[in-house]
Amino acid sequence: MSSSHSPQADGGVASVRSPGVTPPPVVLSAGKRKALLASLGVSYLGLFMTYAGLVAILLPQQMTNLDAAHKVTNLAFVTSISAVATIFVQPIVGAFSDRTRTRLGRRAPWILLGGIGGGICTIAIQAANTLLWIAVAWVAIQVLLNAFQGPLSAIISDRIESDNRGLASAITGVGSSLGGTVGVIVAGQLLNRIGVAYTFFGILVIVICIAFVLANPDKSSVTEVHTAMDWSAFLATFMVNPRRHPDFFWAFGGRFFMILGYQAITNYQLYIITDYIGVNPAKTGDVVSILSIISLVTVTISTLLAGRISDKLGRRKVFVGVATLFIAGSICIPLFMRTVTGMYVYGGLLGLGYGAYIAVDMAMMVDVLPSNGAAAKDLGILNVASNIPQALTPLIAAGLLTAFAGNHRVLFFYSAIAAALSTLFVIPIKTVK
Q1: Are 425 and 250 in contact (CB under 8 A)?
Q2: pTM of this prediction?
Q3: What pLDDT, in 10s, does the model give residues 293-302?
Q4: C-beta of residue 88 within 8 angstroms of C-beta of residue 2
Q5: From the CB of residue 423, how many other CB atoms can be counted at a distance below 10 Å?
Q6: What is the third-level CATH fold of 30-223+240-426?
Q7: Which residues lie across from 13 on neighbouring strands?
């Protein structure tokens, strides 16, 4: 993701901190920790409501309204451009936030910039009436929302102790899963009122980013000590040596293939329901809502159970590995049950697997970070493992649909294989049980 931010003299991008200098850890009371965990859950809820509602429903519908005959290729064009544009936003913004000096702390300025800016652009995209302007608005939305999410994800490393990170990961996982479900339901019910839907999600993002910062004030970072800026050293930190940090490499690869498979189905869910399952467009919103509710129930149950059990057993790999295989199997169900019922069964089982995956995956990611004092940047690099597949998936999906004459079965085969491959990257990780 490439966004450019101009550092301010008194509080923008500060110089690179020497490797051994880290801010003292934030020690929270039990009450403040509970409040922070709740705030993270709500923030992920609102953010992923927006992501899911826009990506799964509103943008595909806008492409259909614009040019139904070329909706697949137009959707692939817009989403691929935005994914490429946002590949490095989280690591860059994360690195900048690691070094930001303001009275609001390191993360808050970027959370506010990304959330408020992303919300405004979400409201504005409804006015775009050409492919070019939709693409421009969509890129802006994705860049800014990633700038919000990157520093937000670093809060877990900043303020949550290691033995509570499984719980934190579970709570953010529930928030993101619940948000994804609710976002799709809301967008599905507003399918024919896109302007209202975009306005709702835009205001939602603005409110949650401001509320998070107000509810969880960070300590001032103005007095933090930094060494002189060394741009070559800064750029070098984005190159993680797989020999020195093999577990980081394996975790990166596991997430890469998981997202590569998962996105192929979720991004084209609306078209799968109408074109593959054959649901009447007038009833699509209802089917999407029911499917989302089923997924919500199973994701929530498995996320909460997996996160807590993972903490108690002190194990991460087995949960992530089994979950990816379960997801791969679930994706195959619509191949044999090409009905609305088949989609409901698929959604329920996929929710069980994906809930367990997201509950533990973030905790495992935090445990394999290689750097000292640059958590936001390192988590941002791992998030590249999500963003590159998001850039590739629309191109791959559009290419497969073209090659196989629009037969959506090929997407299920492709998605299942990619998710299964993810398991192979979890097995070699050694520093996490």
Answers
A1: yes
A2: 0.70
A3: 898 888 888 8
A4: yes
A5: 20
A6: Growth Hormone; Chain: A; (1.20.1250)
A7: 100
